[in-house]
């Protein structure tokens, strides 16, 4: 029988990360649609990587029960509050999971940003000509 994966956040912390992740998911998607819809240059669309990273980090932290920042520092959240993890093997496991979560979030954010860059900008003049053309 395998031991459960180590976690360093409680249920409340997971719920907060889930909420932040979902909010940034909508924000990232809407920002991507807005930048593509307005026909902005690809350089401006590179900025969408930041909300994607925030979104994915929070969702992955929620899924795994690991707070990346606390894991790096060797802390965990308990019902009594934040405390230092004493077991060196547990610290190593939590930090390994935190690094994996960070890599996954950065890679997926880069891929989603790349998808946003691959969409060609819309030609708004063509659409306005079609809209204002007289019958």
Helices, by number, come to: 6
Query: Residue-averaged pLDDT, rounded?
Result: 87
Strand content: 5-15%
List the strand order in the largest sheet. 1-2
Assign a percent range to the helix content: 55-70%
The residue ranges in which pLDDT falls below 50 over 5 or more consecutive positions are none
The tally of structural domains comes to 1
Distance between the termini: 74 Å
SS elements, strand count: 2
Structure write-up:
By secondary structure, the protein is mostly helical. It has one domain (11-132). The chain has 6 helices and 2 strands. A two-stranded antiparallel ribbon has the order 1-2. Strand 1 and strand 2 (81-84) form a beta hairpin. Helix 1 (11-37) packs antiparallel against helix 3 (49-64). The termini are far apart.
Throw out a few tags for this protein.
single chain, 135 residues, mainly alpha, two-stranded antiparallel ribbon
Short summary of the structure?
This protein is mainly alpha-helical and 135 residues long. The protein contains six helices and two strands, in the order ααααββαα. It has one domain.
């Amino acid at each position: 029988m395998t031991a459960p994966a180590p976690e360093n956040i409680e249920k409340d912390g997971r719920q907060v990360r889930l909420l932040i992740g979902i909010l940034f998911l909508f924000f990232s998607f809407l920002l991507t649609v807005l930048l593509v819809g307005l026909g902005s240059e690809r350089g401006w669309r590179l900025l969408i990587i930041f909300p994607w990273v925030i979104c994915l980090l929070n969702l992955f932290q929620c899924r795994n029960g690991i707070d990346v920042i606390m894991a790096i520092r060797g802390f965990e959240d308990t019902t009594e509050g934040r405390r230092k993890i004493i077991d060196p093997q547990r610290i190593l496991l939590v930090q390994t999971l935190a690094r994996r979560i960070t890599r996954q979030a950065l890679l997926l954010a880069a891929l989603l940003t790349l998808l946003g860059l691959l969409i060609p900008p819309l030609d708004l003049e063509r659409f306005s000509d079609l809209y204002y053309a007289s019958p």
